[in-house]
Amino acid sequence: MTAQAAASKISVAVTHRDTYVAAGIAALLRSRADFAVQMGETDASAADVLVTDYATGLHGATATVRSRRSTASSSLIVTDQNAGLQIRRAVDAGIRGYVLQDCTADELSEAVRCVAVGRRYLSDSVAEQLLDSLTFVVPTGRELEVLHLIARGLNNKDIGRHLGIGEGTVKSHVKAILGKLGEPTRTAALREARRRGLLTEERPPMSSAGPRASMRSQRDGLL
Q1: What's this model's pTM, rounded to 2 decimal places?
Q2: Using CA atoms, how far apart are residues 191 and 6, in angstroms rounded to an integer?
Q3: Residue 151: C-alpha distances to residues 68, 147, 223 (Å)
Q4: How many Cβ atoms from other residues are within 10 Å of residue 196's Cβ?
Q5: Please, what is the end-to-end C-alpha distance for the chain in angstroms?
Q6: For the segment 50-97, what is each residue's pLDDT rounded down to a tens digit?
Q7: In what order do the strands lie in the sheet with 49-52?
Q8: CA distances from 148 to 38, 68, 111, 144, 178 (A)
């Protein structure tokens, strides 16, 4: 291959954490004549397109806060994470491309080409989830803390002890959570929260002095 031919190719760095997925992506892209593919972290920042997993892509997109350099504009996320809030967070961070792991070789190739020229690419199902998420009212940070503790099985009194707030305040937060999720019960709200991706984030750590009630089941009800 001549130097001119190599220079005309789209350089792609595959840094997906799942080694099997990474190998599959690399093999598919190498079968196309217009890609020059490398795997691993070596010179990944110099590539035209960075194909990566969700966590790595989001980390790279937000790295500008620490190093003033972000890979968001050249990143294509290939993932099985398809909750609306996750997609929304990635797009808000500046990620250009987002496709699911079951995409076809043609779709993957087209996504890489779009990102390489500065265009966005979202697979159809991803775009649908993103649009759906725009109708959601996202709970506040405190409400998300309460939501995670509900998911751990804590009742209102124990949630209040854990967060250092009154039981009445907890009830107010729970009522707000149910309203924002559009569900009448805790069980239904947790199911909807998981669908939206609200419970896929890192959960607040349990206090070492907190109650042992995290293993206790709670009755399903409005509050």
Answers
A1: 0.68
A2: 50
A3: 37, 6, 14
A4: 22
A5: 68
A6: 999 999 998 888 765 445 556 777 999 999 988 888 898 899 889 999
A7: 35-39, 10-14, 49-52, 75-79, 97-100, 121-122
A8: 40, 32, 35, 6, 13
